[in-house]
Design the sequence.
């Protein structure tokens, strides 16, 4: 009878395969199994065991029963399969084979509501379920990812040593993996991470676009600017790889970036972030802009037609190149701060609504390494929440207030130049408008509410009455006293 393994992993696509190798490299003995679905080639497990896993402490199985039996009790089984119904189908297969106290871990990009449902279902059967967001791509999976586990807290003690061993390590040596909270909180945090990722990528692309169009900078010059920025406050994984991308040449010796069609794809987590922010009543407009920009980028033929219909006239240059570089830098920095502020606001609201008691400082710290949005200022974000646990918005923290005020003059000038030059910078503009809305004590929403009450009797609050007291006006003199709250329509 063979010795039992420490953990089992199901799903040998890019992430699963590399996570298994990561676990083994940290001293864990790993069982692996791959679901074969219709249209998928067979022999995945055998090729992995005889290929990248050859000679390593990994054991492959073709039958799920043998796979489950090979793992030491309490069994820890990590599922790296496509989100949605495949996860539920796999759970259905596993439940009859488990023993009391066994732990299932979903490391895919599942919707947090699905995870909440699965935690309840699996716990009712006497087992534990952990929804763990994993960020870092192929490199992170192999060398150290940011891992965001949530769900059945009673299962955390048993899986913690393994998950923290394969997580990235921050500069202070702490693992970028810590318990998030109950229900689907782990996958919710990962969803917001991905939303911020959408925003970061759009902002960086706009910085590139301004340099390319207005400064007519070469790829090498732009790469040098991003490399320099990556040494300071803008130090981050995405800024770093942008410098590498801009310098990369293909087999023909030409810059590959210039050959890539300007249509961006998306898998849905950015959209999920926006939808859930709207359901929570929280502004996430910068990330929404990034999502919609990917959508409009996909309409390439329409954009080409529209560009011919609306010819743009060149205007007299009114900016100085060196100054413009500084304006791009500060606009990128300030807009990234806005993106993170919005993302953490959504996390704070979700924590209160769902009773997760999220530690926002801890979340900022576990994003410092391994994940796609790792950035130098995450330490500053963590510090801000540690100094004020009730902080309503990151922009109200003294440090970030000073940073925004320093960047603001440059940020405003860049938007002005872009508008004058008819250059699209939607995320930079969205970030600035959010800042202005946030810092405006009286917005024109009073007129919006008056309109709502006029045509729909939706009521309004008055400045001369306490908050929470709603009234309705008979605007035309012909209406009644019925309010929208008095009926369902």
Sequence:
């Amino acid at each position: 009878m063979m010795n039992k393994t420490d953990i089992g992993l199901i799903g040998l696509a890019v992430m699963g395969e590399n996570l298994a190798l990561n676990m083994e490299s940290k001293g864990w003995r790993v069982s692996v199994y791959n679901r074969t679905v219709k249209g998928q080639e067979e022999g995945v497990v055998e090729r992995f065991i005889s290929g990248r896993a050859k000679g390593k402490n990994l054991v492959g199985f073709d039958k799920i029963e043998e796979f489950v039996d090979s793992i030491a009790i309490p069994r820890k089984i990590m599922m790296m399969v496509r989100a949605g119904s495949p996860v539920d189908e796999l759970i259905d297969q596993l439940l009859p084979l488990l023993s009391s106290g066994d732990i299932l871990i979903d490391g895919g990009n599942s919707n947090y509501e699905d995870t909440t449902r699965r935690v309840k279902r699996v716990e009712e059967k006497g087992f534990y379920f952990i929804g763990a967001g994993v960020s870092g791509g192929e490199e992170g999976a192999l060398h150290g990812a940011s891992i965001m586990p949530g769900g059945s807290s009673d299962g955390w003690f048993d899986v913690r040593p393994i998950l923290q061993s394969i997580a990235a390590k921050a500069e202070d040596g702490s693992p970028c993996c810590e318990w998030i909270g109950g229900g689907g909180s782990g996958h919710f945090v990962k969803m917001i991470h991905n939303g911020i990722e959408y925003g970061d990528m759009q902002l960086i692309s706009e910085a590139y676009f301004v340099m390319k169009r207005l400064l007519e900078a070469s790829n090498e010059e732009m790469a040098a600017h991003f490399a320099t920025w990556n040494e300071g406050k803008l130090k981050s994984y995405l800024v770093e790889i942008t410098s590498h991308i801009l310098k990369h040449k293909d087999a023909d010796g030409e810059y590959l970036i210039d050959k890539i069609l300007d249509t961006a794809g998306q898998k849905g987590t950015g959209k999920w972030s926006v939808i859930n922010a709207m359901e929570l009543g929280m502004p996430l407009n910068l990330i929404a802009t990034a999502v919609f920009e990917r959508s409009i980028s996909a309409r390439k033929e329409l954009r080409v037609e529209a560009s011919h219909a609306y010819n743009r006239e060149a205007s007299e240059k009114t900016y100085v190149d060196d100054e413009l570089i500084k304006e791009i830098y500060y606009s990128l920095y300030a807009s990234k701060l806005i993106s993170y502020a919005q993302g953490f606001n959504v996390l704070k609201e979700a924590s209160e609504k769902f009773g997760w008691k999220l530690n926002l400082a801890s979340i900022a710290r576990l994003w410092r390494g391994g994940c796609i949005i790792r950035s130098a200022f995450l330490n500053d974000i963590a510090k801000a929440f540690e100094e004020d646990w009730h902080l309503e918005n990151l922009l109200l923290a003294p440090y970030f207030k000073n940073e925004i005020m320093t960047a603001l003059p440059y940020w405003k000038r860049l938007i002005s130049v872009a508008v004058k030059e008819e250059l699209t910078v939607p995320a930079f503009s969205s970030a600035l408008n959010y800042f202005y809305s946030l810092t405006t004590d009286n917005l024109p929403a009073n007129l919006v509410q008056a309109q709502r009450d006029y045509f729909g009797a939706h009521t309004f609050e008055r400045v001369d009455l306490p908050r929470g007291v709603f009234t309705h006006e008979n605007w035309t003199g012909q209406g009644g006293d019925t309010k929208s709250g008095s009926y369902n329509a």
